[in-house]
Amino acid sequence: MKQLIGRYQKVTENLGDFQREHTESFTVGISQLQDYEWISPLLRDIRRMHAQMEFHLAAGEPKGLLERLKQGRLSLLVTDNPVYEETQGMEILPAYHTGISLVVPAGSALAGKSRLRLEDLKEIPLILAGMEGQMEGAGYWEFYRICRNVGFTPHVAAGAANYLEALILVDEGAGTAVFMEDITSFIKEHSGMKILRLEAPGIVQKFLMYRREDETLEMKRVLKYLIRAGRERDRGGRADLKEDFALLWQEALKRDDGTYSQRLSDDQAEIDFWHRFMEKRKTYQQDPWAVKMSSAVCEVISGLSQETVLEIGPGWGNYTMDLADICRELTCLDISPDVLRFINRWSRELGKTEINTVCCKWEDFEADRKYDVIFGYNCFYRMLHLRECLEKMDRMAGKMCIIGMGMGEIEKYYLEMEEQLGVRLVYDKKDYIYFVNILYQMGIDANVKVIPLSKDISFGDWDQVVQYGTSCLYNRQDEMEEHGEKIEKILRKYFIKKQDGNYHYRYDYRGTLVYWKPGD
């Protein structure tokens, strides 16, 4: 025992020497004071826990810092303007949400309000307080956008290059200063001004950006600590779910090799897919299963007196034509021009209310208005940054947000193959529970409706059955070579040849709707 203890102590000493000799250095890029205020104490905490890590902060202009990151001269970048270019080798993770603060002259009518909303800023002269001189940063575009979404364009009386200049302008009576962050920790009130927090429907989010090739074990530790700290900052008294479901969603979208599909990462690949798909779609026919789901959607929004509806990703119109019947104005948004041409053609053929179409991704869509209802079903398979997409729905909807997806339970014959033959299956990792938990972590308690559905899946010849019934095998070719006869024997138990000469299989599954009222 003494010998073992002595060896253990020697190993511990050697590991300590190794850590001291192998220090990993991280350079973190920041462009705004609030980034420094947030990350600096956290990096000190990490350094105390992991003595082998060293951190250096690099300040600069956002574009220059991004270029340094791409060149490998930065380890990590804190940014509020993420670049959605995962194909370029970048990983982008949500860090925390900022607030919006106002410095109000003491004599202003705003100073006496206990709760300050965006609508209260109509006609008020505003001073946009620049962050280190970056007056055209993403944060201020965000402020313009959320103001327009509630029906007005902000009256900007002046711009300020820094915090001090903004405060001087407030003292001189030029207006109310707007800061896209919580400034209460480093700016103090005095008799001539008051600091207020704005209750806004959309708040800027901060992101951590890094190169995938730089993802070491130590980097993962740093990211995990920073993200947990950001979640604690955002949680606002809610239960801690331990995991960030926005990040788990990103993992769920990855294929088994850890990459994203081409359709997810390449807009043109998605456009080309729908071009080929819609070429085969000559007539409009609502899918039988969609009749039940569409009825459930209309039931959810009944009684809202919805005038305007925005549908995201309408596909071939399973819900579109029914939605057109219950509103005055329907707008369909999709990245595919072929989808939108099909929707327009058949809405005219069926005599529906004129449908507006917008050819755009939801992530890129902007509008100077709100819609009574925003709806999307089975359209989230490309939305890598799902939390930001849901936040956008919440602030652009006036009365109701409805999202959903089919819960594609694995077919029974696959489970039998797995149990009897030990085959490896490719399970769909996406599920509605991510919607519920991401919304919960946003402070939204959503309603959930689960609808039992079924499909009659049929094929004209047996080869088509085998092709379809083995598509979820992880290594189809090898499994068919080894277990081909047994796999086909299992399939024959489920795909039954009927009088029409086709092989039929009844697939039972469920559809889900997740819905909430914005602002609740």
SSE layout:
Elements: H1 2-21, E1 24-30, H2 33-49, E2 53-59, H3 62-70, E3 76-79, E4 90-97, E5 101-105, E6 116-117, E7 126-129, H4 138-149, E8 156-160, H5 163-171, E9 176-179, E10 193-199, E11 205-211, H6 217-235, H7 245-252, H8 262-265, H9 267-279, H10 288-301, E12 308-312, H11 320-325, E13 329-334, H12 337-349, E14 355-359, E15 371-377, H13 386-396, E16 397-407, H14 412-421, H15 433-441, E17 447-459, H16 462-469, H17 476-494, E18 496-497, E19 503-516
Parallel strand pairs: 1-2, 1-3, 6-10, 7-8, 7-9, 12-13, 12-15, 13-14, 15-16
Antiparallel strand pairs: 3-11, 4-11, 5-9, 5-10, 16-19, 17-19, 18-19
Helix pairs in contact: 2-6, 7-15, 9-12, 14-17
| CATH class (first level) name of the largest domain | Alpha Beta
How much of the sequence lies in strands comes to 15-25%
**Unreliable spans:** 131-138
* CATH second-level architecture of the largest domain: 3-Layer(aba) Sandwich
CATH superfamily of the largest domain: Vaccinia Virus protein VP39
- By CATH, the topology of the largest domain is Rossmann fold
Which structural category do the helix and sheet elements fall into? alpha/beta
Radius of gyration: 27 Å
Give the proportion of residues in helices.
Answer: 25-40%
Mean pLDDT: 85
Tell me about the largest β-sheet.
8 strands, mixed
Shape: flat
Tally of strands: 19
Q: Ends: how far apart?
A: 64 Å
Q: How many individual domains?
A: 3
How many separate helices? 17
GO cellular component, one term: protein-DNA complex
Keywords: DNA-binding, Methyltransferase, Transcription, Transcription regulation, Transferase
GO biological process, one term: methylation
Protein name: Methyltransferase family protein
